[in-house]
Amino acid sequence: MLVAAIVFWLAAWGMNVAIANSPGRDTTPARVMVPLMFGVALLVLWEGLVTAFNVPGVILPPPSQVAQTIAGSTGMLWIDFRQTLLKGALSGYAIGCVVAFLVAVLIDRVPFLTRGLLPIGNFVAALPIVGIAPILVSWYGFDWQSKAAVVVVMVFFPMLVNTVQGLRETDAMQRDLMRTYGASYWQTLMKLRLPAAMPFIFNGLKISSSLALIGAIVAEYFGSPTHGMGFRISTGVGSLSIDLVWAEIAVAALAGTLFYGLVAWFERRVTFWHPSHWH
């Protein structure tokens, strides 16, 4: 089994090298195939190593066992996914990003707030999430509202800093030209500064997309209903159901990747004019 896994891994490695050096390496199928083959090769190697060395399932279950657990627990995984991602992470992400965006525009409009709010935002961002989470859980209860509050704290500062930086991206000559045309502050904001800030805003959205899922899962460690990804992971470790823990981790990783990819997809369509998308 181990020899077969190593042979498969080497074959996948050679195929990836061939695709990366082929004339069609920049096509969409090639870009999808290379990471897909790499991921499958790692899973096969993982399966071979665990099986060959008889690693106990409570230490590291093989991917085939994790896949069986996922197939046999789809109902429970969906309930956990809905509680953690759809209710806690997404609601907190939306609230935190919208509020951070509005505060960034306010800071841009009222310059003295830059010296007042940004240091406070920096202070909040430096607070340890494992210290803040139990406090917010005690304030907002065990349901998804407390997880959304934790996510708001985690995503607010990255979104605020990126938006403020993006609104400063235009130079004085461009703003002077808008004033020459008689444009108001809001016309300059909507037609010049916000379009120029879009790459920074999407950077904040992409960073926050990863933080949102992490925040929601970590918050469930400090109190939640009897479902949710963080709750299931913590109880799964306690009951030595490690295959279920890995199943939850796999679902969370897949959901986080798809969420990040969706934001990146919107970014490419909104900021198609940016030089970073030309290659």
From TrEMBL:
Primary location group: membrane
InterPro entries assigned to the protein according to its UniProt record, in alphabetical order: MetI-like, MetI-like_sf
Compartment annotation: Cell membrane
Pfam families named in the record: BPD_transp_1 (PF00528)
Topology in membrane: Multi-pass membrane protein
Superkingdom, taxonomy of origin: Bacteria
Record flagged with keyword Protein transport: no
Annotated ABC transmembrane type-1 domain residues: 82-267
Keyword line: Cell membrane, Membrane, Transmembrane, Transmembrane helix, Transport
Record field: transmembrane: 85-107, 119-142, 148-167, 200-224, 244-266
One GO term of the biological process aspect: transmembrane transport
One GO cellular component, as annotated: plasma membrane
PANTHER family: ABC TRANSPORTER PERMEASE PROTEIN HI_0355-RELATED (PTHR30151:SF20), ALKANE SULFONATE ABC TRANSPORTER-RELATED, MEMBRANE SUBUNIT (PTHR30151)
Family (UniProt): Belongs to the binding-protein-dependent transport system permease family.
Name this protein carries in UniProt: ABC transporter permease
Originating species: Pelagovum pacificum
